[in-house]
Structure formats: structure tokens, C-alpha cells
Amino acid sequence: MRYAAGADPAHDRPEHIRAASGLAWVGSRLAVIQDDASFIALVNAENGLADAFPLPAGPGGARQFDDARGNKAGKLDLEALAIIPASDGMLLAAFGSGSLAPRETVVLVSFDGNGNANIDMRPASEFYALMQRAGDFAGSEMNVEGALYLNETLRLFGRGNGAVRGKLRPVNASCDVSWPALRSYLERPMSVGPPVPASISQYDLGALDGVPLGFTDVALGPGDIVLYAAAAEASPDATRDGEVRGSVVGTIAAQSGVGRWARVREENGAPFMGKIEGLTMTTEHTDRAFAVVDADDHATASDLLEVRLAGPWWNAG
Question: How many other β-carbons are positioned within 10 Å of the β-carbon of residue 211?
Fold first, then answer.
């Protein structure tokens, strides 16, 4: 995926979308968030070309963050994206992973009828602290990776790819919070406290080639099926990348909390070895989804994939 207008040094924008980490439909285009670049992108799914909407710049005007620049720790690390109904249409809510202090931010984005974006950045450290203290959700290292809006409830999913910390181990888990309560806190943090995470569930997602699978995104499928993407990445902790052994797409069994999944494969049947980071259903087919891939290489454009959903794991969902 590449920006239709190319690179823009004045806004510290590269020529391509890098480290894509979540996506959702905005009209006929896909909104893409990135974990190491401060831009919201609206992508044409047919040709992969995008318009860019810059988020506020970091120190020195930076909107790109990586080890080569020495500023990776300052990135927003936007990983989870939810579509929220609003009185004037819809709202995008993007959540930082919470793995470091700069990543405790919620970005609210709406678009007017002329295609302009209204971007509202909201610090949310008190809210993230409550999730961190919920050990059943956060585990040893909290890493928020997915979000779903369900009837005024926001369900956040954490990825269990952290390091072991004493008796605490990484967990794949979800928690629920009231969206009206969270919105009130984000708008008036000095007078309204954050909502307390509730209805915490943990999930056994299995492993690929001996590497545990961890949530990388969630989406609503047909009939409110919860569809998820998970990657097998041998990460040393929640802030550093590791060797990727592939990705899966699955559904969550409501009663057992066990993931039913299929390994993502290339068209020729070979295992797909990339890291799927974002997922949403297509608008035309009930057995197809779009997915975005993070190559863990800031010089490489993120790919947009169309994934066919088939097999007992899907039909049983």
C-alpha cells in the first residue's frame, strides 16, 4: 500500500504505509492505522493507493519512529481500531498498545462529508493503568491489539507475547468497558474517572511450529461471529520483534474460550510466513476478509491481502 501523493518530507511522511496494524471500513475505503508512523490512511482496496491524514507530530516533528532513528520508544504504537456509531455517522477509535507510556493514547477520528478528518488525540494513562492492574487481562506485559464495539460495550483484546515476569505469564485475553463511560473520561479526564475493565476472559489459541499464537486483531463476521487474526512470533517481550512463523485466522468458541483457526496459506498452498496485523470482512462476500501485513521493516510497504475463509473451523462458526 502506497500513498497516492508519494512521500512528503515536510510532514515526515514516507511514500508507503509501514507497519500496518489495524483496518476498518470508512465508506468505500479502508482506514489503516500504523504502529510506527503517525498517519491515518484511507486506502482504495482495488489498487492499494491511499490518502494520508497526519496525526500530531512528535519531538522534532517526527511522525516515523524506528530503531534507525533512535526514537522507537516514542511511537504511539496504535494497534487496535474500532468503529463506533455516532450521531453524525461513525467514529474511529484507535488504541495504543499500552506497552510503554507514550502508547497509552486513544485517537478519535471522524470524517466530514468533504473527506476531511477531525483527529482528536486523548491521553489515557489512568485507563491503561486500570487495565494493567487487571492481571487476568494484562498478564506479565500488557499489549492491546484488537477492539470491537458491541452494543455500547468496547471489548479490548490483549496479545500474549510478553516476557515472563516472576509468577506472571503472557496471556491472550479480552476485557469489556462501557464505551459511554470511556468517552466521558476521554473528554473530561480531570472530572470523570476511567471505567473499570470487566468480564475478563482468557483464550487458548494454540501454537504454530511450537511458537505460541497471540492476538493481532479482531473483527465482526457474519451473524456477529468474532473473527480474529493471530501471529506466531518468537518475541522476547511485548516491545521487541521476533522471528515470525506464520499467521492464522480463526473464530472464538464462546463457551470454551478455545480458538478454532486455520493457518493462512499462499495461493499455491504453501504456508504464509508473514505477520497479519489487521483484519476486517469484505463488503461483498461473507467468506472473504481483508488483512494487512506488518513486515517489521520500515523500508517495506505493508501489503493488503484478500483472504478466503473456508473449512470446518469457519463453517462451524
Answer: 18
